[in-house]
Amino acid sequence: MHIPKKALAVMAAALLTGTAGIAQAQEARNVIVFLGDAGGLPTLNAGGILAHDKPLSLFIQSMPYVALSDTSSANRWVTDSGAGMTAIMTGHKTNNSMVSAIPTSPNGGVTAVKTLLEYAEQRGLSTGVMTNMKIWDATPAATYAHVASRKDKDSIFQQMLKPHLGDGVDILIGKGRADAVASFAARQTTAEKAFAGAGYRFGEDPAIVRDAARAAVLRDSDFAPIPAVEATIAQLAKNPKGYFLMVEWDMHTSGDPKKGLRHVVEMDDMIRRVQEIAGKDTLILFTADHSFGLRMGGGERGAPLLQQYEAAAGEPGVTTETNDVISVQDGHTGEEVIVAASGPGADKVRGFMPNTRLFDIMLSAFGWKRDQ
């Protein structure tokens, strides 16, 4: 069959245009990582069924790309949040309790390792950290600070305002206001003055971030997650270069399993909403820093699981550990956790992987390479 040269030229141009579009689509303008602290597979499964009384009911469970991630640290089979988040944010395994630092000598010496947030800061992107835990705790700290011990909150607060690289996180939302007050008082100043001196609008209402390119929202109580993440993204998205955002939500189930499982649904609802507003140029990742000792061991279909759990809990002698519907052995566990993803670069999320590979996936999605 004869095809005129002009037609061939048009077809070739269309093919090249389409190829260029595919290549462009593989590069993310924005990356958002959702971190379910202690959000292992048993917790996600129980949280979804407890809320919706059916399996595979979470939005996370509909995301198109899925993998399983090893969470072991450099010195333990079972990680803590410091080492777990360090691996995700820097691509380096480290010892438990260390935060974006790796051991370099037997006597306790450490070396800082560059975080993805710091890569973003150096390239002029906007950055945000949002958590329903303390803003200086191990998971958020691993995005911007470098310490040998996650307990060193004074050093973490200091690095929050005088960062290792760049000018620091643009939007900070989390708990720990009383800790900040005490930490800065020990240095003969106030939290308000310290944050204002670093260019932040300081307050307790997450809504302030809509009107401030740099804002620090510190509080000691819970806040509504979806309005907070919407306001954060609205502010960060003003940067034409893009943004990096980390959102942590506590899913620990020790003491009160219902609270941790409710947080599963809160984060899932956040991810669903962010998928709607973030745009197709945004890589969205969900994962956990480690799993937890929760197990769903019973329950009948046809009746709300929550009622069955509460009925079992009311029986004489039944404890959180022995409840045969949902039981909890308090502590981290070492099995792999899920990674779920959508958007540019999400196709690299597949199979079994070390948690350090998530750093490379995010870096690659931005089109960046590791510093040598």
From TrEMBL:
Statement: the UniProt record of this protein carries the keyword Zinc: yes
Binding annotation for Mg(2+): D37, D137, T139, E248
Active site: S81
Domain of life: Bacteria
Signal peptide: 1-25
Transmembrane region(s): none
Binding site for Zn(2+): D37, D289, H290, H332
Textual note on the cofactor: Binds 1 Mg(2+) ion. Binds 2 Zn(2+) ions.
Alphabetized UniProt keyword annotations: Magnesium, Metal-binding, Phosphoprotein, Signal, Zinc
Cofactor(s) recorded in Swiss-Prot or TrEMBL: Mg(2+); Zn(2+)
Annotated protein name in UniProt: Alkaline phosphatase
